[in-house]
Amino acid sequence: xxxxxxxxxxxxxxxxxxxxxxxxxxxxSERILRSETxxxxxxxxxxxxxxxxxxxxxxxxxxxxxxxxxxxxxGINETEEKLKQALGLEDVVVVQGDSDKEPWVKNELGxxxxxxxxxxxxxxxxxxxxxxxxxxxxxxxxxxxxxAKRQLLFVPARGGIGEDVANQANTIxxxxxERTGGKHRVLxxxxxxxxxxxxxxxxxxxxxxxxxxxxxxxxxxxxIGEAMTMAERRKTGKEEMEKIIRGHxxxxxxxxxxxxxxxxxxxxxxxxxxxEDLHRIRHVFAVAGGASKAKAIKAYMNTKxxxxxxxxxxxxxKQILAWR
Length: 324
Description:
This protein is α/β, with parallel strands linked by helices. Helix content is 47%, strand content 16%. The longest helix is centred in the first third of the chain and has 18 residues, at 57-74. The radius of gyration is 21 Å and the shape is globular.
């Protein structure tokens, strides 16, 4: 039952999807997968066409009805409780799978974040969002109903770091606003600047206005990065890179690099939200998954604000709990 549920759920995320592609996604042989998809087809849970397999309305309804039961059977509810205790959090959401091995799990992280964000919305909301592929996944699953009788303003939490345009905070905010019927503002400044440029830029009227809005955010959506990955993405200089390595940094968020104990070993001068700003924000959603992010997540959680809700996957959760 778990195997068939996993196959059906994977088809729903990747549809229309071919059998070979799906087999690679699931790490399953095509022969075994063919047998299982034939069963799902005979039960009228999926359609099989030349363009690929897709989930029927009955299949989608079954997935929704089975979700809570499958979480219980797979032990996710218990994992969430253990992770709360291990990281000192009041709220944790764990989704099935490991986003390192199954890319579609990132969509599940996005969906879980969207559900929690919707529950936190009030009448007027300023939502600050960082960049990255995980935040882009959140944008992909937002729908117009999320803004019913609410005013949403999406603002980038910080400047850009030269990553792929689709994963920059400005682009993600624009997409979130488009998909929800909300509004957005842009912050066209680099993430990392010299002291001289920083003083000049932050006093520009248009930038100052956006920075004021960012500081007024009542919801923050952010990712957690691996230290070396983020340092390389920022094209960090030799001296700073040596400092990060010497400090044994494993995680990064908002330009701060943390070692395994959660101590800050390096800070980049960034324009936008700072770590100390998070402690006065009502709802902070940290979204990161994959076993490879486990150290980074654990390190950041040592300095997280009390309002933090961690949204992660089984891959990261199991790795963190294995270190207890």
